Amino acid sequence: MLKSFRIIFFYISLLLSSGILTGQVEEIDPPSDIKTITFGSQKDISILPIINLNERIYLEFDVLNNLEKDFYYVIEHFDYDWTPSRLMKSEYLDGMDNLRIFNYENSFNTYQIYSHYRLQIPNPQTRLKVSGNYLIKIFDENDDLVFSRKFMVVEQQVGVGVQIKRSRNVALINEAQTVDFSIKSNNLNLNNPTETVKTVIVQNNNLKTAIYDLKPQYTLGNELVYRYNDNSLFWGGNEYLFFENKDVRMANLGIQYIDLQDLYHSYLYTDIDRSSRKYTYNPDINGGFKITVLDRQDPSIEADYTYVHFSLLAEEFLNQSVYVYGGFNNFSIINDNKMTFNVEKGIYELSMLLKQGFYNYKYVVVDNDNTLFEGAVSGNFDETENNYKVIVYYRDLGARYDKIIGLGEANSIQITN
């Protein structure tokens, strides 16, 4: 009962004080025939899509047919809170968008036929001119929006120091982590920083659980200091579970057995409820995934798709739903990753079509009010290794958009009291 009360109290205080936004633009999840979207500064890997101005960012995805459909991309600029900025397209884009994605290849020697699409920005037709928040929208040949993804562009002008601390709230000291940070400006004069400087804290590259708009608590010379007790708290969570199926002909890491039908089926070992167990260190990549395949030259078109069977041994969550969750589905809560409780077996089950690779995943619970509880199945521990990023925005007096002027990063493996 005490633990349940702490959880409810923590969520209420977090929602009231952390600046979680309700009016921001939401990313559109793809239909079931579009899979394995990777978006970031490196090819074929899932990371937070944030780059320096004039660096390249890569978008890749698969379409599970051989129709070689046409897709088009549109780029929009947003303020720090993901509301549309006042800039006209010509002010943030050099060249044009709404262009067809020309670069695609068909899969080779796979059971599942698919076409693999690639887009890089900047390219000869499209170049970004300013920093800030962006949204890329992918449309099909009928001008229907297929999916969208957020990304950020930085022009580094300030230093951002980040430290991870154990919760100063004694009731949560073993379950939560807090983020202390400072912003140091040597050459840029930050006018009226309580109004012009905005911040976003991201845990494990998941924008959906980010904390927005903390104000500096005090200033030391040219340094803004943020040391909150509750406003910058995150649940510690637990290490992600993982599997690898780079060889579909035999059991790999985390896979109990495989079966070939129309496509390969990979059956994972049944996972257990870890919420009441002690923490055990288990290296992960903080929810990410990477496409890999054995004895092939190009994983992007030679990796096959398999049905991955997840199972969770846990008591049924009444009036709540259980989902499989991770970077592979952009940390989304949708029907495709919703589990079904098998009453006869007493386990939750789900089958998902995934490309061969190394995947992190976890089980999360969502109640009828759409409140997400990441630690309901995995538990929350202050020892958990988590990655944190602090993004700093600045809009000078009279300016018309929010620049990103700094990015800081830290890992909770160096957590202190």
Provide tags for this entry.
five-stranded mixed sheet; disordered N terminus; mainly beta; 417 residues; six-stranded mixed sheet
Structure description:
This protein is 8% helix and 43% strand. With 417 residues, the protein is mainly beta. The chain starts with a helix and ends in a 6-residue tail after the last strand. The relative contact order is 0.18. Strands 20, 21, 22, 24, 26 and 27 form a six-stranded mixed β-sheet that branches. The chain has a five-stranded mixed β-sheet with strand order 2-11-10-4-6, with no helix packed on it. It has helices at residues 2-17, 89-92, 193-196, 299-302, 375-378, and strands at residues 34-40, 50-52, 57-63, 71-78, 93-95, 99-100, 103-106, 115-121, 126-128, 132-140, 145-154, 159-166, 176-184, 197-203, 206-212, 218-220, 223-226, 233-235, 241-244, 255-260, 264-268, 271-272, 289-291, 305-313, 320-325, 340-342, 347-355, 357-367, 372-373, 387-394, 403-411. The model is unreliable at 1-19 (pLDDT under 50). The radius of gyration is 22 Å and the shape is globular. The protein is built from five helices and 31 strands.
What is the gist of this entry?
Helix content is 8%, strand content 43%.
Mean pLDDT level: 91
Q: Which class do the helix and strand fractions yield?
A: mainly beta
Helical content band: under 10%
- Major β-sheet profile: 6 strands, mixed
Number-wise, the strands total: 31
Name the shape in a single word: globular
Radius of gyration: 22 Å
In terms of DSSP E residues, the strand content is 35-45%
Measured between the Cα atoms of the first and last residue, the distance is 27 Å
Enumerate how many helices there are, as a single number. Answer: 5
Regions with little confidence, pLDDT below 50 for 5+ residues: 1-19
